[in-house]
Design goal:
The complex is a heterodimer of chains A (334) and B (322). Chain A is mainly α and 334 residues long. Chain A is 77% helix and 3% strand. In chain A, the strands form 2 sheets. In chain A, strands 1-4 form a two-stranded antiparallel ribbon. Chain B has 322 residues and is mainly α. Chain B has a single domain, classed as ABC transporter involved in vitamin B12 uptake, BtuC (Orthogonal Bundle). A two-stranded antiparallel sheet of chain B has the order 1-2. In chain B, strand 1 and strand 2 (166-167) form a beta hairpin. Chain B starts with 6 loop residues before the first helix and ends with a helix. Classes of the chains: A mainly alpha (334), B mainly alpha (322). The interface between A and B is large, with 47 and 51 residues.
C-alpha cells in the first residue's frame, strides 16, 4: 500500500519540480517563455512513446525496440508514398506496421518466456537494420505540404498539433490505465504475475497488448517525426528508447513493475524535454546534456529507492520492497 | 536424475561444445563455398576484430552471472581509449598513461557497483544513466576530436606479436579468458558470484557478503573494459568519440549466445568467447560475400533470438524430464 502511495505522490512531486524548472529557465533565458509551446515540437514523439512504455514497464516488461520501430515505420511510410500511395494512407499503414512489430515482440516474450530486455534488444537490431536497408541508407523527402502540418502545424495559431495529439493520447492512456479492466490488469500483473494468472487474468494477452500499444505509438511517432523533419531516414529513431525510458522513470514509473502513473510519465518527459530545450538556449552542448540526463536518471531512481526504504521503515512491515519483487520474478522463472 | 551422466556426456551436452560445433560447421561451409575465406590471415583478422568485444563481454558475463546487467561497458571502454590516447599525446610516460587508463575504468565500474550494490538501485537504470554520463565525458575529453598520431611507445604495445603472428589483443584475450575461468571456477570469490546469481537469499543466509560480491562484479567489468580500451587504441593507433558505441549490446549478445543466463547464476567465460567468435565469423562472412554492412545488426539480432529461444526451449525440455 505504502509503496504505491509513494509512487502516486511522486507524480505530484514531478509536477512541482517541472513548474520550478519553468520558473528558473524562463528567468535565466528571457526568450524561453515566448517559445514555450513551439519548443514542445522537438520532443513530443518521445512523450507519446512514454505513455505506452509506462504500461509496458508497469506490467513488468521493457521495450528497447521502439527507436528502431520509429525508423522502420517511418521508412515504410516514405516508401509507400514514393510508390504512389496517398501519404495519409501510407501513414496509417506505417502505424499499423508499428503495431505488428509490437505484436511480434509480445508474442516472442510470452510464448518463449525469454526476458523482455533480450527479446526487444534483438528485435531492435532487426528492425533498425531493415529500416536502413530499405531506405538504401538515404533519406526520403518531398512529402506534400498538408502532411507536414501534422508535425509543424498550429491549431488556432498557437497550439502545436503535436502537443494536442500528445495531450489527447495522454488522457486516453490515463483512462485506459485507471478506469478500464485492461489497465487494472496491467497493474495487477506488474504487482504479481502468478497471483493474477491464478485469478483468471489472461496474462499473455494483456502483456502482448502492452507491446502492441508500444509498437503503435512508436509507429505514430515515426509518422510524426517524418512530418516534422519533412523526411524519413533509416536511423531517425536511433537511441530514442533510452530517452523514453528515462522520462518514464523520472516520472516515477517503478522499473520493477507494478507502480506508475501516466501523469508522472508525461511530466517526466516534459521535465527532461524542457530542460534540454533550456540548455540549448544556454548553448550547452548535447554531450554535456547527456551527462546531465544520466545524472538526473540516477538521482530520480535513488530518491525513489530511499523513499521506499523510509516508507518501509515507518511501517515496520519487514518486507523487502523492490527486492521482494525481484525474488518473485526469479521464482516464476525457475 | 537417476544416474549421473559421465563427464564425457556432460561436456558433449554443454553449450560450449554446441557452439564449437556450430562454429566448425560454419567454417566448413565457408571452406566449401570459398576456400580463400579460411586463409590464416583472414581467420586471425576475424579473431582480432572480435577480441575487443570479447574482452568487454567477459566482464559483462561476470555481471550477468550475478543477475545484473551493465549497459555502460561500451562507454567505459570508449572513455578509456580517449583517456589513453589524449594522455599519450600530451607526452605523459607510458606507465602513467596506462595507470590512469586503468583507474578510469575501475572508477567507472566502482561507481556502478556502489550505486547498484550499496544503494540497491536497479542495474539497468544505473548503467543506462552512467552510459550517457561516460559517453558524454568522452566528448568532453577531446571536445569531439579524434585521437590519432599516437606516440611510438603506445603503438609498440599494440603492435606486439606473440610468435610473430598472434596480435596483442588476442594474446590479452586468451590471458583474460584463462584468468577469469580460473577465478570463476576455482576461487572462493568466484564461486560466490555464482551463488549470488543463483539465489541471493540463500547466498546471504550462508554468510556471503552480497553487497561486496555484486560491487566486485561491476568493478571487474570496469577493469575488463579498461583493458579492452587500452589495447584497442594501442592496436588501432586511433580512437574516436564514438568508439565503444553500442558495444554493450554486442557484449550482451556474445554473453547470451554463449549461454549466460540473464536471470543469473549461469554462464562461463569460454561460452562468451565462443559467442563472440560466432558473431565475428557471421559478420566476417557477410563482409566476405559483399553483403552490405547494414545487414550486420539484423543478422546479429536473429542470432541472439535463435540462441535465447533455443536455450529456453531446451531448458523447458530438461525440466520436464526431471
Amino acid at each position: 500500500m505504502k509503496r504505491s502511495k509513494f509512487f502516486a505522490n511522486w507524480s505530484y512531486g514531478i509536477i512541482a519540480v517541472f513548474l520550478l524548472e519553468m520558473v528558473i529557465l524562463s528567468s535565466v533565458t528571457p526568450k524561453f517563455l515566448s517559445n514555450l509551446l513551439p519548443m514542445t515540437e522537438n520532443f513530443m514523439p518521445i512523450g507519446i512513446m512514454a505513455l505506452s512504455m509506462t504500461l509496458v514497464i508497469i506490467a513488468g516488461g521493457i521495450d528497447l525496440s521502439i527507436g528502431s520501430v520509429v525508423s522502420f515505420s517511418g521508412v515504410i511510410m516514405g516508401l509507400l508514398w514514393q510508390h504512389g500511395m496517398n501519404i495519409w494512407v501510407a501513414g496509417l499503414l506505417a502505424v499499423l506496421i508499428g503495431g505488428l512489430a509490437g505484436f511480434i515482440n509480445g508474442q516472442i516474450i510470452v510464448r518463449t518466456g525469454i526476458q523482455p530486455l533480450i527479446a526487444t534488444l534483438a528485435t531492435q537490431f532487426i528492425w533498425g537494420s531493415l529500416a536502413v536497408v530499405l531506405s538504401n541508407q538515404g533519406s526520403i523527402y518531398g512529402f506534400p505540404g498538408s502532411f507536414l502540418l501534422l508535425g509543424t502545424g498550429f491549431l488556432y495559431g498557437y497550439l502545436p498539433v503535436q502537443l494536442v495529439i500528445f495531450v489527447v493520447l495522454a488522457l486516453l492512456f490515463a483512462y485506459l490505465l485507471n478506469k478500464t479492466v485492461f489497465g487494472r490488469q496491467v497493474l495487477f500483473i506488474g504487482n504479481s504475475e502468478s497471483v493474477s494468472a491464478y485469478s483468471g487474468v489472461n496474462v499473455n494477452r494483456v502483456k502482448t497488448w502492452t507491446y502492441v500499444l508500444s509498437g503503435l505509438t512508436a509507429g505514430l511517432s515515426g509518422v510524426i517525426m517524418g512530418s516534422f523533419f519533412a523526411s524519413v531516414r533509416g536511423d531517425m529513431g536511433q537511441g530514442l528508447e533510452l530517452t523514453v525510458i528515462t522520462g518514464c522513470l523520472v516520472g516515477g514509473v517503478n522499473v520493477f513493475g507494478g507502480a506508475g502513473t501516466i501523469v508522472g510519465a508525461a511530466f517526466g518527459v516534459l521535465l527532461l524535454g524542457m530542460l534540454s530545450q533550456g540548455l540549448n538556449f544556454m548553448n550547452v552542448s548535447s554531450q554535456v546534456q547527456a551527462i546531465i540526463t544520466g545524472v538526473i536518471l540516477i538521482l530520480a531512481v535513488a530518491i525513489q529507492q530511499l523513499g521506499t526504504i523510509f516508507a518501509r521503515r515507518r511501517k515496520m512491515t519487514g518486507g523487502e520492497g523492490a527486492g521482494k519483487l525481484r525474488g518473485e520474478r526469479r521464482a516464476r522463472v525457475e | 536424475m537417476k544416474n549421473e551422466p559421465s563427464l564425457f556426456w556432460k561436456i558433449m551436452q554443454s553449450r560450449e561444445s554446441f557452439l564449437l560445433g556450430l562454429i566448425l560447421l560454419l567454417l566448413l561451409i565457408m571452406l566449401v563455398v570459398s576456400p580463400s575465406f579460411l586463409g590464416p590471415g583472414n581467420l586471425m583478422n576475424i579473431l582480432t576484430n572480435c577480441a575487443t568485444v570479447a574482452i568487454v563481454a567477459l566482464g559483462e558475463t561476470i555481471v550477468i552471472i550475478t543477475k545484473g546487467i551493465d549497459l555502460s561497458v561500451g562507454a567505459t571502454m570508449g572513455m578509456v581509449t580517449l583517456f589513453t590516447g589524449s594522455l599519450a599525446l600530451n607526452g605523459f610516460p607510458l606507465a602513467v598513461v596506462i595507470l590512469v587508463a586503468f583507474l578510469a575504468g575501475i572508477v567507472a565500474g566502482a561507481l556502478n557497483g556502489v550505486l547498484i550494490s550499496y544503494l540497491k538501485l536497479p542495474p539497468i537504470i544505473v548503467t543506462l544513466g552512467t552510459l550517457s554520463v561516460y559517453s558524454g565525458i568522452m566528448y568532453v575529453i577531446t571536445k569531439g576530436n579524434w585521437v590519432t598520431n599516437l606516440p611510438a611507445g603506445l603503438l609498440q604495445l599494440g603492435n606486439f606479436r606473440l610468435f610473430g603472428f598472434v596480435p596483442a589483443p588476442v594474446v590479452v584475450l586468451v590471458v583474460l579468458l584463462l584468468v577469469s575461468t580460473l577465478f570463476l571456477q576455482f576461487s572462493i570469490p568466484g564461486r560466490h558470484i555464482y551463488a549470488v546469481g543463483n539465489n541471493e537469499a540463500s547466498a546471504r543466509l550462508s554468510g556471503i557478503n552480497i553487497k561486496r560480491v555484486i560491487f566486485s562484479a561491476y568493478l571487474i567489468a570496469g577493469f575488463f573494459s579498461a583493458v579492452a580500451g587500452i589495447f584497442y587504441v594501442a592496436y588501432n593507433g586511433f580512437s574516436t568519440p564514438s568508439t565503444g558505441g553500442n558495444m554493450e549490446l554486442d557484449a550482451i549478445a556474445a554473453a547470451v549466445i554463449g549461454g549466460t543466463n540473464v536471470f543469473g547464476g549461469k554462464g562461463t567465460p569460454l561460452g562468451t568467447l565462443l559467442g563472440a567468435i560466432l558473431l565475428g565469423i557471421v559478420t566476417g562472412a557477410l563482409v566476405f560475400f559483399h553483403i552490405p554492412a547494414v545487414w550486420n545488426l539484423a543478422v546479429e539480432g536473429i542470432v541472439i533470438l535463435a540462441a535465447v529461444i533455443s536455450d529456453a526451449a531446451l531448458y523447458r525440455m530438461q525440466t520436464r524430464r526431471i
